[in-house]
Amino acid sequence: MEQIKLGIIGVGNMGTTHVQNILAGKCPEIALAAVADRREARRQWAQGTVPETVQIFEEGSDLIKSGLCEAVLIAVPHYQHPVLAKEAFAQGLHVMCEKPAGVYTKAVREMNEAAKESGKVFGMMFNQRTNCVYRKMREMVQNGQLGELKRVNWIITDWYRTQIYYDSGDWRATWEGEGGGVLLNQCPHQLDLLQWICGLPKTVQAFCQEGKWHDIEVEDDVTAYLQFENGATGVFIPTTGDAPGTNRFEVTGTLGKLVCENDTLTFWKLSQDEREFCRTATEGFAQPPCEKLTVETDGENPQHVGVLNAFAGNILHGTPLVAEGYEGIRGLTLSNAMHLSSWLGRPVDIPFDEELFLSELNKRRASSRKKEGKDITFSTEGTY
Amino acid sequence: MEQIKLGIIGVGNMGTTHVQNILAGKCPEIALAAVADRREARRQWAQGTVPETVQIFEEGSDLIKSGLCEAVLIAVPHYQHPVLAKEAFAQGLHVMCEKPAGVYTKAVREMNEAAKESGKVFGMMFNQRTNCVYRKMREMVQNGQLGELKRVNWIITDWYRTQIYYDSGDWRATWEGEGGGVLLNQCPHQLDLLQWICGLPKTVQAFCQEGKWHDIEVEDDVTAYLQFENGATGVFIPTTGDAPGTNRFEVTGTLGKLVCENDTLTFWKLSQDEREFCRTATEGFAQPPCEKLTVETDGENPQHVGVLNAFAGNILHGTPLVAEGYEGIRGLTLSNAMHLSSWLGRPVDIPFDEELFLSELNKRRASSRKKEGKDITFSTEGTY
Q1: What's the gap in Å between the CA of B116 and the closest CA on chain A?
Q2: Do A205 and B207 lie within an 8 Å CB cutoff?
Q3: Does the CB of A128 have a partner CB in chain B at under 8 Å?
Q4: Does the global pTM surpass 0.80?
Q5: DSSP 8-state assignment for residue A327
Q6: How many separate domains does chain A show?
Q7: How many CB pairs under 8 A join A and B?
Q8: B376 within domain boundaries
Q9: A378 to B242: CB separation less than 8 angstroms, yes or no
Q10: A294-346 residue pLDDT tens
């Protein structure tokens, strides 16, 4: 079987999982060719883990230039995603990028342009798009089964993290090292799914609370209010401070309501469009007839392995990616708009002023606090 | 058995229900002595419904002055609540007032002062306080079982109303006639329960959409962001435009999470305070141990009949009311603060500037549109 030669840049929490999946034979069309990490402890881990044929680098740039790889998977702190991706495209490599696409849309826009110029395959690690319940939600919203969008409420407070999580790396949860908190580290999945399923809102007003539950300088609690072009509204409520949290994603349309909770999808299906019913009903307290259904899905949820296999498939056979790299900018747009809105204390329209966002971010980077990182690598199993 | 002689002012949707409950013998300590309504059709209905011993008035003021009643139940459009209550207190009558207490807190404050001066019994028709699940939630929050309050999310979108509901009375859903929409007509229950269970927030920022789903001038869709004194946050999301709606009330504290949905109360009980766990855990992705429990309640939910019987009991035997009339101002404070915030496009602190609220309301009353009311009375069974 033909295999693509993959280099993995960054073998911390997520990169380690990717290495293990490939070594376990879960990605038959991928051969691990090289890994890179700036931390000696992680290179030592790699030394003891990967076969001798796999080259170990300190710098991702050296891995990219080594000629050993046809493709790279970038799993380093977020600011470096566009930087390394551009280097890889310049070397004619295919790129799979961990989420988020970057920290600010301006850099991601440049990455997207570099990808386009290179003509190489560009994927984004939106592994939650492989989840059958979200795929089904997208299908039902996009094919009109829900009618016109009215309301989107996502309470996504089940990203619990302890203080030691934040203390585990000196880049974590700092403006300079990570560029944000729960919006940038934990929620890129949900921000992507939200726009993938419901589209991007046109205006957001967010209330980000920085260091609310943890000793960190970035946000760990957010409430955002969304307004869509057609008048639909919504809330997006993430935190890393609630235990046990909630993951309840509710989408209401003129033909019914879809709720995803505990990996179950429930559809309240109206037999008549609510807008028409409202106008024509002769009873004040009447409701359109409604049927409650548990939605069947295909049950497939291949997560990271599915994203990587689709990436290899796209390179080798032209079969579809799970998520085009170009789409990474959309969830980041939502995230940047939420930060900007909270910093300015006012609603922010999408598209927003990218220069203004960057200057506000840079103010925070300039006074970003230096942390003594403990440099701990955790198992990420079951956490994404 | 001793009975109090009650006059009911307003026999529209709710007043009719009260009359029927009393005539059906559900309130053994209450004798219906008189009813009043300005609409001839409702007086005719009363004529055909109540015994001959019950006097029928056109004006509530005349009923109050008639000497026939020891107590009145006020179930007229909201602006008239404080006006009639003050008249009743001045005549030495006890007062049960339908929710909301009034349209603006300034008038309600004056009503409360009149009540205090009179020394008469003053109750508010917060029938949802009789619901066993809400009583239990209050008990658990107030006695510390949830620990410190962290988050309150109430999605209360199951107040569906059709256009003909709004067309059914010329006062309905107008600034001049009703003084507000879903916040003032449907949600006084939830606004009261929210403050009763969790306390009043210190700041609100609300996004009220006026005439979004119906041809009306007041709000029928609201998203409000709440901040409490201790730093807890929340959202309150009511509408009359969603079918089927949701009623999901989630309260998270440092000792667990309580969710009330479909009249079931579920408690995720932590065995350790989350704040302590967060600081002391040695694992980044660990969570405090948690047990999921379905909370037992006493199953009692006597609603309006319970409120009326408690009112009679308080007058006759000094047993407690379901809700003191004085407390009506608290939910209205929340409602007024939400309107004001939305009108001004900024966060509003509680207590807010009552004069500013009234001047903003009066601007809207001045240009309030005249409606051709169809004057329909609906059965309210199962709608409150």
Answers
A1: 37
A2: yes
A3: no
A4: yes
A5: G
A6: 2
A7: 148
A8: no
A9: no
A10: 999 999 999 999 999 999 999 999 999 999 999 999 999 999 999 999 999 99
